[in-house]
Amino acid sequence: MFHYKPLLTSLALSASFIVAAPVANAEENTILLGAAISLTGKYATAGNHAKVGYDFAVDKINAAGGVKIGDKSYKFTIKYYDDESTPARGGQLAERLINQDGVQYMLGPYSSGLTKAIAPVTEKYKIPMVEAEGASRSLFNKGYKYLFAVLSTSEQYLASAVALAADVAKANGKDPASVKVALAFENDPFSLDVRAGVIDDIKKHGLTIVIDDKLPRNLTDMTATMTKIKALKPDLFVVSGHSKGAGTATRQIAEMKLSIPMVAMTHCESADLVGKYGATANGYLCATQWAETLTYKDPMFGTAAEFNAEIKKTVAAYADKSVPYQLAQASAAVYVFKDAFERAGSLDKDKVRDALAATDLATFYGQIKFSEAGNNTAKPMVLRQIQDGKYNVVAPTAFASHKLEWPRK
C-alpha cells in the first residue's frame, strides 16, 4: 500500500531549506524529475491534488519495476519546491531545479499562469516538460518544442454547457436568443481562455449575454456579480475562478438565495463542493478533464474506475470524496514520461523529447497524442452534473452516464 503525508504539509518548504538532490545518472538507476508546484497560496488546493497524482504514479510505476531502458531498470524520483502560487517564484525555482539540482526532465506546475512562467526556462535549457495542469491555449502558440500537455485546452472546458442551454431552450419551444447568460471569470490566462471558448459558443448558438464580469483578485467576494444576477435573473451562470472561485460562488449563491436554472463552473471537484456545501451544489454543471465512469484504460493503472478505486483505497484524503481530475492527469503525465523513456531507449533528453513528440498512448485518463505545438489533440472534455451528491457525466451525449437534470433542484 502507498502512503502519503498530509496534503498541505508534504514538502511545502521554502527552497532555501531544501537540500539539493543528486543528479540522476545510470549508476544510481534513478531518473530525477523536477517540479515547482503550488503547495501554498491561492492555488494550493489543486496544487496538492496534482502532487498526490505525481507521487501516486511514481510509486505505482516503481513498484511495477520502474522504467525499462535496454537491460536496465530505473526508478523515478521527484524533486519538489513550493512555488507559493506565484509565477515569478515558479520561474526562479525552475532555474534552480535545472542549474543546481541537475534536473533534466520536468513535470509541470499547477495553473496556466505558472506554466507560462516556467515554460520559457525549460525551453531555454532544452529540458522536456510534461505538464498536466496548464490548459491555456496561449501556451501552445509560442513555438515551444519541449513543452507537452496531457490535458485538453481550456477553451473547451465549458463550451458544452452553452450547447446544453441552447438545447434545453429548443426542447421547451423557445428561441436560444431568449436564454440570458451571466459570465464571471478570474483575470488569469486559464480563465480568460475558458471565457473565450464560452463566448465563441454563445455566438454560435445565439444566446444573449446580460452580465460579463471579471472576478476580484482574491476571489473571496462575488457580491457585485451576485447582485446583478438577482436583478437580471439569467438562465445560465458560467463562472471560472479555480478552486477558490468555485467555492466562493457556491457559498454566495446560497447566501443570497439566488434561483438560477443552470450553473456551470470549473474546479467543482478540487473545491470539494459536495463535501463543503452539500445539497447547495446540486445541479451544478462541472467541467472535467476526466471521470471514473469513462471507458479509458491502460496496462499500468487499469481502467478509469480502477484508478479511481485505488486512489480512494490508498490515499485517505479521498476515501469519501470525488477524486479530482487534477490528480488523475498528474498521474497520466508521469506515465507519459515512462512511455517516452522506454520508446527512446535512452536517458538523453533530446531523444526523450523526440519520443514525447511521437506519443500516441492509451491511458486510464484518455488517449494522449501531441500536436506539433505540444497540446493533446486526442482527448475530449466532458461535463458532469452534481446529482444527489454524485458527479455524473451528462455531456457530450456519447460519454454521458446520466441525463441532464434541468432546472437544477
Low-confidence stretches: 1-27
Shape: globular
> Mean pLDDT score, rounded?
93
- Helicity range: 25-40%
Spatial sequence of strands, sheet with the most strands = 8-7-9-10-11-16-17
Total number of distinct structural domains: 2
| Structural class computed from helices and strand pairing | alpha/beta
Helices and strands, in order, run as: EHEEHEHEEHEHEHEHEHEEEHHHEEEE
By CATH reckoning, the class of the largest domain would read Alpha Beta
Provide the CATH topology of the largest domain. Answer: Rossmann fold
Q: What is the fold's blueprint, element by element?
A:
Layout: E1 30-37, H1 44-63, E2 67-69, E3 72-82, H2 87-99, E4 105-107, H3 112-124, E5 129-131, E6 147-149, H4 159-171, E7 180-185, H5 189-205, E8 208-214, H6 223-232, E9 236-240, H7 242-255, E10 262-265, H8 273-277, E11 285-288, E12 297-298, E13 302-303, H9 304-314, H10 325-344, H11 349-357, E14 360-363, E15 366-369, E16 382-387, E17 390-395
Parallel strand pairs: 1-3, 1-4, 4-5, 5-6, 7-8, 7-9, 9-10, 10-11
Antiparallel strand pairs: 2-3, 11-16, 12-13, 14-15, 16-17
Helix pairs in contact: 1-10, 2-3, 4-5, 10-11
Describe the structure.
- With 409 residues, the protein is an alpha/beta fold.
- The chain has two domains: 15-153 and 294-369, Rossmann fold (3-Layer(aba) Sandwich); 158-265, Rossmann fold (3-Layer(aba) Sandwich), CATH 3.40.50.2300.
- The protein is built from eleven helices and 17 strands.
- It has helices at residues 44-63, 87-99, 112-124, 159-171, 189-205, 223-232, 242-255, 273-277, 304-314, 325-344, 349-357; strands spanning 30-37, 67-69, 72-82, 105-107, 129-131, 147-149, 180-185, 208-214, 236-240, 262-265, 285-288, 297-298, 302-303, 360-363, 366-369, 382-387, 390-395.
- The strands form four sheets. The chain has a seven-stranded mixed β-sheet, sandwiched between helices.
- The radius of gyration is 21 Å and the shape is globular.
